[in-house]
Design a protein that fits this description.
19 helices, 5-stranded antiparallel sheet, 23% helix, 5-stranded mixed β-barrel, alpha+beta, disordered C terminus, 41 strands
């Protein structure tokens, strides 16, 4: 016991530095039974003698019962392999073909092989996929027969797999149907932002495609022929081409000359990640050389374009810039390198000064420190009093913003996301905003500021460096899920950014005495600006009178009056700026927003679409939301026949667009969730249904008109608060059916508890007095994440649950048909169907009234 010591906490964060390996299934003992002592001794000699130049190639990963993960590897130097060495010694024989795995082992990866390629190898290859000159996938011509046999095995196995009811999990080895030819291929599944779809990487071809889960089947452990057959797609990179921007014209040329036809390749080298560096030839055409020429020609054109712009653009001298402005770090979130002109409050007048414009590429200087000595002493005292071991303060620990319902004042929009999400700085806070910036960026404070090295959590208050000007600002952590890069919101301006932990510092007590100096706001629905074609352009660089109506959650609903604060001196110039801003706004991707709700308030509604307790969509039944639904329906019905195609620059997650539903041929509003080289995944935001199209069909996506972008989403994406699946992190089919039976009723009582992201609300739902989360737990389909929350559910709903909770749950099951109860006891696949989104002659609202979930083998719920 004296040789045992407690492990210091910092060592718990380090990954294990060794991994278990085996030569299993590459070679086997000569007697086919067990390894001799001589074989073990020879392998040790090979390892120790070659230890300086020894390398390891991982061919596959196996999971062995009672042992854990085991890597199938080959050890080698530049001239010899361990497997070959043991075979030459007569101590082993190669395994060909691969034998079935022992019963206690199964693969968790496909088999990798370099097929004996060495530097200088010349091969006929078939290019199967081009992502860029630095990521090309090809098959060896000599493997043609093996690939044909593999495809035959897949065809046979896919027929048997279709009968299986097991579902595939993200990260699993699988067979997936390729939409272009309807055939099945080996792949690795990866998640996307939808429980109905998977992103599949086809390991024998190198391309990816978004595939519906119903067309993806897991590979059983017994299918050794498919699991242990080497992946046929070799990842290659064209040699001697410096890595740079991926150019569409380069990819097009490369695809035209090489895709799906035989070309010659010389394998020059192999990188650490397994990528082969190759020279490719199509007859006498040296493909590498031609690609270099295409890239060089593009660079010449780009350089000429930049030179022309530089000759025509006038950049104001640095010493003419106004540096006293209350500025927004990254005010324009979509074009951070194009700062917008700002207005600053004049302390002596109710008018605004117009600062000189500044160069987009030159950082803005901080205000000159006139009292460096006194500020240095203040900062040193602050730093000396700081206790670095204390937990970070939270946003809700700041003083409350000093406004009340009915308060009226003069404000300025520091940052605008939408009519439903913008931020106002009040005139009376100008001095505090300026002083906050000066104090945070005095030299002695910045030099001694304590970098936050401990784990960050959502809601932590910090000082964060803004990339564009290198200055520090108060910020709150909004997403701490990534290890080093955190999403933050600058609390005195409202814009967001992603920062590395090295740029995050601890706030001292002086900076915690002020409330946040910008107020999160949304516009009241009755305001005339709701229907303005460019809300941000109206507010940009203008003072306005603002009236605070009521607080809804963390936002204030406000009314604004811009008429009283026009500047006659700059009317013409301001009109020009507004037009330019409106034009720029039209060139930016549209974004949709959710209508605000009050946290904790009871709402009545119904489910519009449901996947499982972690993903469903709620429509509210009140006058305001009915008006919005009707407005969306009318706007979609009145769209012109010809609409502008969505630009490629707008194909980004979060952007809004229009797409015709493939069945009803009606236009739907959509929000892009995922984009890759093969597919675009979207959510039809007014129905809760995901869909996808191939990249080559992206012309079907149209620009969302401004009048539709100004209307909020009709439904709310939700998950049940406080519970998690009872089975292995995945909602079972039994749990899904049980939940659908409960939630597919009218007059649900919905309580919005927390907006956990821009994409989803955490909610409590009551149906006939039954808390759905509690019902799932009582039926053993879910577990409470927090036991205290479970106790609170019991207390809150005890009056509604006068009878036994188990009898309540059983009563729901009693109404379930026998066929469903049988299915709930098996592992059969669950299929969810959504009826037509907008039947002929029905508007959006009436269609939503009929949206429900249907299991094909169950009568309508």
């Amino acid at each position: 016991m004296t040789n045992l010591q407690t492990l210091p906490p910092e060592f718990n964060q380090l990954e294990g530095q060794s991994f278990r390996c085996s030569l299993y299934n590459l070679i086997e003992p000569t007697d086919g039974k067990s390894w001799s002592n001589e074989a073990s001794h020879s392998l040790k000699e090979f390892v120790f003698e070659k230890s300086v130049s020894l390398k390891c190639t991982i061919h596959a990963e196996l999971y062995v019962k009672n042992i854990g993960l085991c890597n199938v590897v080959d050890l080698h130097t530049t001239s010899e392999q361990a497997t070959t060495f043991l075979v030459k010694q007569g101590l082993a024989v190669k395994v060909q073909p691969l034998k079935p795995l022992i019963p206690t082992a199964y693969p968790v990866s496909f088999m990798y092989s370099s097929f004996g390629l060495t530097p200088g190898s010349k091969e006929k290859i078939y290019v199967t996929h081009v992502a860029s000159p630095w990521e090309i996938y090809c098959q060896l011509g000599r493997n043609g027969e093996a690939i044909e046999k593999l495809m035959e095995t897949i065809a046979k196995e896919s027929g048997e797999t279709l009968c299986s009811k097991s579902t595939v999990k993200p990260g699993s080895l699988c067979l997936a149907k390729y939409s272009e030819d309807g055939k099945w291929y080996r792949g690795i599944s990866k998640p996307v932002l939808s429980n109905e779809l998977l992103n599949v990487f086809f390991v024998d071809y190198g391309n990816k495609q978004i595939v519906e889960k119903s067309n993806v089947k897991p590979l059983e452990h017994s299918t050794t022929d498919l699991l242990m057959a080497p992946m046929q797609a070799l990842k290659c990179s064209l040699a001697n081409i410096p890595k740079g921007e991926t150019l569409a014209e380069v990819n097009t040329w490369l695809e035209n000359i090489s895709l799906n036809k035989p070309v010659q390749a010389t394998f020059m080298a192999k990188d650490k990640d397994g990528t082969f560096s190759v020279d490719m030839f199509d007859g006498d055409t040296h493909i590498n050389e031609k690609i270099r020429e295409v890239i060089a020609a593009h660079e010449v054109r780009e350089k000429g374009s930049v030179t022309d712009n530089a000759n025509t653009e006038r950049v104001p001298p640095q010493n003419q810039r106004t540096v006293r402005a209350v500025h927004d770090p990254g005010h324009n979130k979509r074009s951070p390198d194009k700062p917008e002109l700002k207005k600053v409050f004049n302390r002596d007048h109710k008018s605004f000064k117009h600062p000189e414009s500044r160069s987009p590429t030159t950082p803005r200087k901080q205000p000159e420190n006139k009292t460096a000595g006194s500020k240095k002493r203040d900062c040193e005292q602050l730093l000396q009093s700081q206790d670095c071991d204390m937990a970070l303060p939270k946003l809700d620990s700041l003083p409350e913003i000093k406004v009340k319902s009915g308060f009226t004042g003069v404000g300025f929009a520091s940052h605008v996301n939408s009519i439903n999400n913008f931020f106002i700085q009040m005139q009376e806070d100008e001095a505090n905003i300026l002083k906050m910036g000066e104090d945070l960026n005095c030299s002695s404070f910045k030099e001694k500021a304590q970098n936050v090295k401990s784990e960050l959590h959502n809601g932590d208050l910090i000082a964060a460096e803004f990339e564009e000007d290198g200055a520090l600002y108060r910020a709150v952590v909004t997403d701490a899920s990534k290890k080093r890069n955190f999403s933050i919101e600058f609390i005195d301006y409202g814009n967001v950014a992603t920062v590395d932990q090295s740029k995050v510092y601890r706030l001292t007590s002086e900076f915690l005495s002020q409330p946040r100096l910008c107020i999160p706001c949304s516009l009241v629905k009755t305001h005339s600006l709701v229907n303005h074609p460019s809300f941000e352009a109206v507010l940009k660089d203008k003072p306005f009178e603002v009236e605070f109506i009521r607080q809804t959650g963390t936002h204030w609903e406000v009314k604004m009056n811009l008429k009283e604060f026009k500047q006659s001196e700059h009317d013409t110039e301001m009109g020009k700026e507004t037009k330019e801003s409106a034009t720029e706004q039209e060139n930016q991707p549209q974004e949709l927003f959710m209508d605000p709700v009050t946290i904790g308030q009871e709402y009545s509604g119904f489910v519009a679409a449901v996947t499982n307790p972690g993903e469903f969509y709620i429509a509210l039944e009140d006058q305001d939301h009915n008006v919005i639904t009707t407005a969306v329906s009318d706007a979609l019905e009145s769209l012109p026949d010809l609409l502008s195609t969505l630009p490629d620059a707008h194909l980004i997650p979060g952007a809004a667009c229009l797409i015709r539903h493939k069945d009803t041929k009606k236009w739907c509003r959509a929000e892009i969730l995922h984009v890759d080289g093969a597919s675009v995944v979207m959510n039809l935001v007014d129905y809760g249904v995901c869909t996808h199209i191939l990249q080559e069909h992206r012309g079907k996506l149209k620009i969302l008109p401004a009048e539709l972008a100004r209307l909020p989403k009709v439904i709310y994406p939700c998950l049940l608060r406080g519970i998690k699946p009872a089975d292995d992190g995945q909602w079972s089919d039994c749990a899904v059916i049980f939940f659908q039976e409960l939630i597919c009723h009218r007059n649900l009582k919905i309580f919005f508890r927390q907006c956990i992201s821009e994409m989803q609300w955490e909610v409590d739902i009551l149906m006939d007095g039954v808390c759905l989360a509690k019902a799932l737990v009582d039926a053993d389909h879910a577990l409470y994440i927090d036991l205290m929350l479970g106790l609170r559910f019991e207390q809150e709903h005890s009056q509604n649950l006068r009878s036994s909770p188990e009898r309540q749950v059983t009563s729901h099951l009693a109404d379930t048909p026998d066929s469903v109860q049988k299915i709930m006891g098996t592992n059969d696949e669950l299929t969810v169907e959504i009826p037509e989104l907008t039947p002929e002659g029905a508007d959006l609202y009436s269609a939503m009234k009929n949206v429900h979930v249907k299991v094909p083998w169950v009568s309508d719920t």
